[in-house]
Amino acid sequence: MFERPNVGERAVLVHIEFTSHGSESEDPGEFRELVISANVEPVATVTGTRKQPTSRLFVGEGKLEEIRDVVAASEADVVLFNHALSPSQERNIERELKCRVLDRTGVILDIFAQRARTHEGKLQVELAQLEHMSTRLVRGWTHLERQKGGIGLRGPGETQLETDRRLLRERIKAIHKRLEKVRRQRDQGRRARMRADIPTVSLVGYTNAGKSTLFNRITESGVYTADQLFATLDPTLRRLELPDIGPVVIADTVGFIRHLPHKLVEAFRATLEETTQAALLLHVVDCHDERRDDNMEQVESVLDEIGADEVPVLEVFNKIDLLEEFSPRIERNEAGEPVRVWVSAQTGDGLALLYDAIVERLAEDLLHHCVILGPTDGRLRAMLHEADSVISERYRDNGDVVLEVRLQSRDWYQLLSRAGMTPGQVRTEAPAS
Predict the structure, then answer these.
(1) Which domains does the chain have, with CATH numbers?
(2) Residue positions in the annotated binding site for Mg(2+)?
(3) Residue numbering of the annotated binding site for GTP
(4) Which pLDDT does position 271 carry in this prediction?
(5) pLDDT surpasses 90 at 69
(6) What is the rounded average pLDDT of the residues 312-341?
(7) Would 82 disulfide with which of 31, 241, 325, 339, CB 3.0-4.6 Å?
(8) What are the φ and ψ backbone dihedral angles of 49, each rounded to 5 degrees?
(9) Is 317 or 310 the better-scoring residue by pLDDT?
(10) What is the pLDDT of residue 354?
(11) Structural contact between residues 257 and 339, judged by C-beta atoms closer than 8 angstroms
């Protein structure tokens, strides 16, 4: 595991509004939450407005002097920018302020380094850290020569900087190989589930929307949850039995955030593939958050980036317990299909409606009819009972038995095949309304 930098405990936050960026600026409130999630204490915030950043110091000379004074007054250990800094800007600001400087991506990487628990998660974080660091190697070591030139050769051999770059490249290559092995193992697991016709339902959403709390409610597991950003990094899969559907796999995934660094998206590709291969996405939304609509747009943007924009989505508006006098409900589109469910994962309100909506969305090919079987069709009757697909059963005077059944069409055809029958040999009728 790559050691995360010792950034200290006290931080000065810097947030600059750039008028040329329009509505693309970051949210200072969310950045403060990120910093607290990194176990760093924000002691002061410096704000300002500029038309656009400067190429050398990102901020102007006057604003830099203000930051320097605030750092000295608050005895801060680190300055955190709510922006993406170039490697040269980061170095120049550090040189001027005489303290450690991190940008928004560095803060997110630091949080990921603290939260990763599994071997795969640690590999993914280390890969993102190394790729981020590879652009920030400082030319401060070039006077230290690792190798001297031999007789008849002039000049230094491999410098410390070149050695660092080579070691980074080798480590990044090794991690890519190990993650590729993990990716192949995940592919095998997904193919096995597809062969067994077990659909995957993947939870996605903005960080701290309540995905893991909902996951624990649905699956009765003990995944770590906390009221903080990026409480969950490692993907967790659980098997769940749903009426009429049978077994499904529920996947909890890492939360998304505004302008999620591209390197993190790439590093977590193996994890996010659970999302792209899912039969249904549960887009969990914190309905109490005043930034709700903007957060939903950010999630949709990341889904588009990882190629999951074509996967069917059921919106789950969570945390209705924080709204005044609001009861659970299902919202449907013009075709009558459930598109949104209002629930509270914390209290459990609305979970029954959520189960119904998931079943309805997954059971688009559900068969519900009455099967008329004669005295010689006992094998098919026994198999339908064994599959727990029989709703009711009644007998006619002529000895026929009428079974009202509900099951997936694929399961129906598999049962017929195992019973040695074809669809044309079985009499069916519509169930009584």
Answers:
(1) 10-102 (3.40.50.11060), 198-363 (3.40.50.300), 366-429 (3.30.70)
(2) 212, 232
(3) 205-212, 230-234, 252-255, 318-321, 344-346
(4) 60
(5) yes
(6) 91
(7) 31
(8) -135, 135
(9) 317
(10) 93
(11) no
Confidence of residue 159 (pLDDT cuts 50, 70, 90): low
At residue 315, the pLDDT reads 95
How far is Cα 281 from Cα 325, in angstroms, rounded to an integer? Answer: 28
The 3-state secondary structure of the chain, one letter per residue: CCCCCCCCCEEEEEEEEEHHHHHHCCCHHHHHHHHHHCCCEEEEEEEEEECCCECCCECCHHHHHHHHHHHHHHCCCEEEECCCCCHHHHHHHHHHHCCEEECHHHHHHHHHHHHCCCHHHHHHHHHHHHHHHCCCCCCCCCCCECCECCCCCCCECCEHHHHHHHHHHHHHHHHHHHHHHHHHHHHHHHHHHHHCCCCEEEEEEECCCCHHHHHHHHHCCCCCCCCCCCCCCCCEEEEEEECCCEEEEEEECCCECCCCCHHHHHHCHHHHHHHHCCCEEEEEEECCCCCHHHHHHHHHHHHHHCCCCCCCEEEEEECHHHCCCCCCEEEECCCCCEEEEECCCCCCCCHHHHHHHHHHHHCCCEEEEEEEECCCCHHHHHHHHHCCCEEEEEECCCCCEEEEEEEEHHHHHHHHHHCCCCHHHCEEECCCC
**Quick one: pLDDT band at residue 66, thresholds 50, 70, 90?**
very high
| CA–CA gap between residue 151 and residue 332 (Å, rounded) | 81
Binding positions are: 205-212, 230-234, 252-255, 318-321, 344-346
In this prediction, residue 261 carries a pLDDT of 66
With cut-offs at 50, 70 and 90, classify the pLDDT of residue 143.
very low
Mean pLDDT of 321-350: 90
Amino acid symbol at 205: G
